[in-house]
Each structure stands twice: as C-alpha cells, then as structure tokens.
Amino acid sequence: MPGRQHADLRTVSGMMTWRHVTPEDFALLARWLAAPHVARWWHHETSVAAVERDFGPSARREEPNEDLLAFLDGVPLGLLQRSFLHDYPEYLNELTPITAVPARAMTIDYLIGDAADVGRGLGTRLIRSALDRLWAEHRDAECVIVAVHADNIGSWRALEKAGLTRVAHGELDPDNPIDDRRHHIYRVDRPPRSVRFVPLPPAVLAALLAGDLATARAATGVPLSEWFLSDEVTWLWRMRLDQIATDPRSADWIVRAAVSVPDETVVGAGGFHGPPDSAGMVEIGYSTDPAYRRRGYARAMVTELLRWAAADPSVSTVRASISPQNAASLASIAGFGFTHVGEQWDDKDGTELLYERPARLT
Questions:
Q1: In terms of CB atoms within 10 Å, which of 7, 105, 112, 311 comes out highest?
Q2: What residue spans define the domains of the chain?
Q3: Per residue in 26-75, pLDDT tens?
Q4: In this model, does residue 7 exceed pLDDT 80?
C-alpha cells in the first residue's frame, strides 16, 4: 500500500473519493481495526474469519448496511458505515426513547485507519464528504443521527465541526464493554433542496404532446422523465401551447422543467401562470414528479419562483391558488410570507384558497 507524506499540506487538502468495500479490502480493514486508536472505540475482532463474518454480507450486498472506503489522493484513508436506522429495529428501539427518529433517518459510523492521520482534521473532512455523498445517493434520507460515547471527544468534536448538532444525551450499550453507557446524540438534517428551471419552449411542449421524449430531452439538454408524458401533465402542455399562440410574450414566464442542483435530476415542473398583469401580479404553479415527492422539491421550486419574481421590477405581488384539500401544496408555501386573501372557483380543481405576498419582502 503506498505511503502518505503526512507533512504534505497538498495531500491533506487533496481529493477525497469513495468506493464500496470488497473482500480484497478485508486485510486492510483487519489492520485498521487492530490499531490501538481504532480498537479503543470499535472493539472489533480482527481475525480473518471475524472480518469476513462482519463485513462479508455488506461487501456482497446481502444486507442493507453499506461499508465504504474513503481515499485521499488515491490512498486509503478510512472506513464509513451507513444505514437506515429502521433497517435495524433492535438499535432503533434503544435510540427512540432518547431522541425522535424520523422514518427515513440514517446513521453513520467511521474511522481513520492510520494513527498518523488522526488529529489533522481529516475526520471532519471524511464526515463532510460522506454526508455529501449520502444526500446525493439516498435522496429519501431525511437526516443523519449519530450516537457517540461521551468520552470519545475526538469523534464528537469532528461531528460538530462537520455541522452536526448535539440534540440529546442518553444511555446506550457501548461498543467497548470497558465503557459506561453515556452517549451524546448528534443530528444533521438534509440541506434544503435547490432547483434551477429549464425552459420548455413550444417545440418541446409539442414533442411531449406527441410522446416524443427523445426530442424533448435533446432540445432541453436535461433528462426529462416519463412523467412529462403522463396524463397528469399533458393537459398543461396543451393549455400552455394554446396560451403562447394567443400571447407569445407568456412563453418567457410559463412552465419550465425543475432540475435539482447539483445532481441535475429533473424532479418536476414549475413557472408562472403568465406574465405580470396590469397590477404587477404573477401566480406561481408547480408540480413534483411522483418519484420525488415528499423530499422538499416543491419548496425548492417555490423558493426559486420567488427569487425569479423578486428579480423582475415589473412584479409587485406573487399569488398562489391552492385547493383546501391539497395539504402538501399548502405546506410547501408555509413560511414564505403568504397571506390568505380569499377564495376562487377553478373549473378543474373546484374551490381554491388564494394566498398573496409582496414580490420583495422587507
């Protein structure tokens, strides 16, 4: 295994990469687990049979836990374990009396393999990088909850520097039987979603109505999903095409594809019902692909639509009209400064509640 020049600051700040553990890594894991700074807290058996027993199922993808190796400039640095807490009900039952655990909460465990790499800030870097990867690869993960023994100061300080917050204290079975049961509980919630909007010009709307997803994808440069051909939205494409034919200037304001940042997944569509009216009012509209619902993308679309409206001096008021039965949409505008101003009748949705807010909040 190539050695690392520990005094080299370029290497300390180098590129961190990841891959899943394979059986070929078991000898490395055994060496790391036997190292005194790891053994103190992990208290893990290090025989060939023990490492195979404990890491083999994950390496073969036979259990939900994932084991990953972290590399710094191509050199192995440490180990990360991650899993959804509800996949391990026995541990979950220990944790839930201490802190609230959302349905899609995950947990992580981690180690720095070589003692020479400890105390150099690499643990914090590893955790931050691990979280970035976790949010990208597990898009339904709501938060990460980590229990750390109260005496493992280096570990919980690394968590704090990586952005986790101590939310509880409680008693849990320790990994090492020499320790008591005192643990600190740390948590970090998924960062707010962010989207960008990609225009859907008339040619793209026409292609979608014709079922020609390949042409629509090529024209927009983003991977539009099959949802863009579904009955849930094709009525909207038809209506917007007619609207543009009647009022060409509306093309700059109406529906666009919503693309998640930074992973470039198309998660829905949003825009305004049209350009500002004579009073400077625009009305927002948005819909999330069912595959990405309940993950914060609707609020991300509202955020971006409000930013768009605030940047245009011709807009003074932003409106949202929502069915009183649409609890998800009502929740998506909560906290953005909207005020209930009345009701209206919509031929498609029936009674709608009207909400408005200034385009620019002071």
A1: 112
A2: 9-189, 195-358
A3: 999 999 999 999 999 999 999 989 999 999 999 999 999 999 999 999 99
A4: no
User: What pLDDT is stored for residue 13 in this prediction?
Assistant: 66
pLDDT band at 295 (very low <50, low <70, confident <90, very high): confident
Give the chain as a 3 state SS string. CCCCCCCCHHHHCCCEEEEECCHHHHHHHHHHHHCHHHHHHHCCCCCHHHHHHHHHHHHCCCCCCEEEEEEECCEEEEEEEEEEHHHCHHHHHHHCCCCCCCCCEEEEEEEECCHHHCCCCHHHHHHHHHHHHHHHHCCCCCEEEEEEECCCHHHHHHHHHCCCEEEEEEECCCCCCCCCCEEEEEEEECCCCCEEEEECCHHHHHHHHCCCHHHHHHHHCCCCCHHHHCHHHHHHHHHHHHHHHHCHHHHHCCCEEEEECCCCCEEEEEEECCCCCCCCEEEEEEEECHHHCCCCHHHHHHHHHHHHHHHCCCCCEEEEEECCCCHHHHHHHCCCCCEEEEEEEECCCEEEEEEEEECCCC
> How much is the pTM?
0.68
Q: Tens of pLDDT along 101-156?
A: 999 999 999 999 999 999 999 999 999 999 999 998 998 899 999 999 999 999 99
| CATH class as words, domain 9-189 | alpha beta
- Return all residues near 346 (Cβ < 8 A) that are at least 6 apart: 321, 323, 352
pLDDT for 109: 97
Number of neighbouring beta carbons within 10 Å of residue 100:
12
Common-topology check for domains 9-189 and 195-358: yes
CATH code of domain 195-358: 3.40.630.30
State residue 267's pLDDT score. Answer: 96
